[in-house]
Amino acid sequence: MPSSVMPTSEIATSGAAVSATGLRKSYGDKTVLDGIDLNIPAGSVFALLGPNGAGKTTAVKILSTLISADGGEARIAGHDLARAPQAVRAAIGVTGQFSAVDGLITGEENMLLMADLHHLSKREGRRVAAELLERFDLTAAAKKPASTYSGGMKRRLDIAMTLVGNPRIIFLDEPTTGLDPRSRHNMWGIIRGLVADGVTVFLTTQYLEEADELADRIAVLNDGKIAAEGTAEELKRLVPGGHVRLRFSDPATYQTAVSGLGEAIRDKDDEALTLQIPSDGSQRELRSILDWLDAAQIEADELTVHTPDLDDVFFALTAPTAPSSLNSSKEDVR
Fold it and tell me: pTM of the entire structure?
């Protein structure tokens, strides 16, 4: 594992948009968050994954000042969460799983209402509303009741409303839930645009592909703890099953490779002339295989690298009993 991957508590907090140490929350005798640590650099996308009920929304609610933690410390945009909640609120925006859009009024009126809540003058409020409606491709529908909007339009309006206060940190709690694939991809573009403008995005999602596409770093929350954290590629290397697949067209060359590569696994159908070599997909291991093939003067007709995806990581880390080999790897990426 790359040396840049380290326990969260060991990562320097300088330049962090969000940092937390030992965050705890219980409801009755149920512990939802059991001392989690977070460190999110400014201008990045951080994705928090976990099964239903793992505590993702609770973490968002605590960090966005909606509820209080039972223990631990956190700083948001440089402000102490417990001592300066008003300063934290001024620096953040929150879009929850369920839209905050009022369907009885128009999209423009929703925007102007948000501008009033941020104490903008009427002139400034209209300017900001118009700019955001245009940015999110809602100008044509601005005068229509929000109840007539599609799910994707409502979600775009929801985020536009969140941006009225010009927050530098945005919490998006499952922002694409219920959206069709096209609307989901449109939302990904919006999130990328926010980050390009220097906004930090804290994302919770049920869609692993979404985290893989968007997040600079991903944490998997399970049983109240961060099971693992790292880039998507780092997390994928935690899970066994990666391999390099070699395919041959010449049976003699295939048999030579079988004899020389003792660790290789034959395809169940020997006539397929394929071998699988266990590999984490790293450049080092791939070079080693290629060097051996060159030295043995063996030429494969096809070489493909297969690595586990985030689905494999998620299921492995959130299983009731993770394999011991996986448990021993978790600390390497937290």
Answer: 0.76
